[in-house]
Amino acid sequence: MAERIYLSPPHQTGNERRYLEECLDLNWIAPAGPHLERLERMAARATGCSRAVAVASGTAALHLALIHLGVGSGDTVLCSTLTFCASANPIRYQGAEPIFVDSDPATWNIDPNLVEDELRSLALQGKRPKAIIAVDLFGQCADLAALEAIGGKYGVPVIEDAAESLGASFRGAHDEPDTWRPAGSGGWASLISLNGNKIITAGGGGLLCTDDARLAKAAAHLSTQARDPAPHYQHSQVGYNYRMSNVTAAIGIAQFEALPDRVAARRAIYARYCKRLGALPGVTMMPEPTTSQGNRWLTTLLIDPAQFGADREAVRLALEADNIESRPVWKPLHEQPTFLDCRCRGGDVAERLFRQGLCLPSGSAMTPEQQNRVMDIVEAARQRRSQAA
Ligand SMILES: Cc1ncc(COP(=O)(O)O)c(C=O)c1O
Questions:
Q1: Which atom of ligand 1 is nearest to 194's Cα?
Q2: Which terminus of the chain has a lower count of CB atoms within 10 Å, N or C?
Q3: Strands, DSSP E only, in the chain?
Q4: Do the domain assignments include residue 3?
Q5: Candidate of 63, 84, 141 to mutate for ligand 1, largest count of ligand atoms within 8 Å of Cβ
Q6: Atom 3 of ligand 1 has which residue's CA nearest to it?
Q7: Probe ligand 1: pick from 195, 223, 248, max atoms within 8 Å of CB?
Q8: How far is Cα 198 from Cα 227, in angstroms, rounded to an integer?
Q9: Which of 79, 24, 88 is nearest to 245 (CA)?
């Protein structure tokens, strides 16, 4: 059996060991320490935010943001439907309800026009959601400038779910078309993820990034069990054990140093896939709109079975048979059993992207030979009709 090719495995820089040893030598094996502080400074710089709070996961970062907004039972929060469940789960942790919104075919991300339609119709009923969670799908930024303007008009804060888009950038407001901003600087707050499959990883962990000093202070407090300043243990609020460990941060620092290289590598991988596979009949590569320069975390394409001669599942199974991991595009959250009772504005676009979309191996350490292996299999699958349902 040929060596397995993974979708997005960790890519070490060589400095992880050095920073880990430093951390051990200093005996900062705790949810506090110099590496943690350094990681937060690096994340703030990379996202263009004045503050970054390092926590146990991207999910925890989003949860803390929602808590600070006072999201609770009876509230609603708008959220992209085409995303991983972690973009919406914290809404439910708070006892609130997500309202899902379909994708814009030009970006695959939350459609700003549908967001505005939904906010307008809720306003007519005297209702206002507590937040808009805009996901940067597969490393491609949502149209954040448009979403910020709409959120501002209706008084609803935007949270950028930049879990997948660290290192990407997006175009500024429409009256400043030449300004580019880093992923993570959109809206009121953002989250990034350092999970094992992300463009850089600490083996887990996340950061809440914001210019709102009160949010950053509250998140740091809540993430450390909401301990009040007192010599004994004193708590005025329910807190969480969400703080990142200094040991995790040590790995994260080494990875952050390599972020520009990792973005360049993933974009080059996308370009090679695009050149060969993008030319096949029935294949459409994930577009890059004029509003975003993505990090191409995962190269993703659509397969139209009528033109290609095989469907997405047939291609995925052919890759798996050759020990290559690929994955369907996220199943829309409004179709997930746990969210079936939630409202969704639109949904057809996300449903089609799920039916036809496939994410190809995109790890930044991938060799041209490994990429050729993937592309050979995709090409060979063309003539085979899917046996799968
Ligand atoms: C879009 C999106 N949001 C949120 C998360 C949650 O991040 P974490 O795994 O660090 O909790 C992930 C990935 O895991 C993600 O892909």
A1: 10
A2: C
A3: 51-55, 76-80, 97-101, 132-135, 158-161, 169-171, 180-182, 189-193, 206-210, 283-285, 292-293, 299-303, 327-328, 344-345, 357-360
A4: no
A5: 84
A6: 87
A7: 195
A8: 32
A9: 24
Q: Which structure tokens are listed for 11?
A: 């890519």
219 and 295, same domain (yes or no): no
Instruction: With respect to residue 372, please indicate whether it lies within any of the assigned structural domains.
Output: yes
CATH number of the domain at 286, please: 3.90.1150.10
Taking CA atoms only, the protein residue closest to ligand 1 atom 13 is 163
How many angstroms separate the alpha carbon of residue 380 from the centre of ligand 1?
Answer: 33
> How does pLDDT run across 190-202, given as a tens digit for each residue?
999 999 999 999 9
Q: How many domains does the chain have?
A: 2
Query: Which of 286, 289, 282 is closest to 297 using CA atoms?
Result: 286
Which of 209, 229, 257 finishes a domain? 257
Instruction: Give the predicted TM-score (pTM) of the model.
Output: 0.97
Give the Cα separation of 66 and 77 in Å (integer).
Answer: 9
Asked whether 326 and 316 are in contact (CB, 8 A), the reply is: yes
Q: Which atom of ligand 1 is nearest to the CA of 197?
A: 14
**Domain coverage including residue 329:** 259-381
Q: Residue 86 Cα, ligand 1 centroid: separation in angstroms?
A: 6
- Residue 1's pLDDT is 83
pLDDT for the residue 173: 78
Do 128 and 142 have their domain in common? yes
Question: Is it the case that residue 388 has pLDDT exceeding 90?
Answer: no
Question: Are 234 and 297 members of one domain?
Answer: no
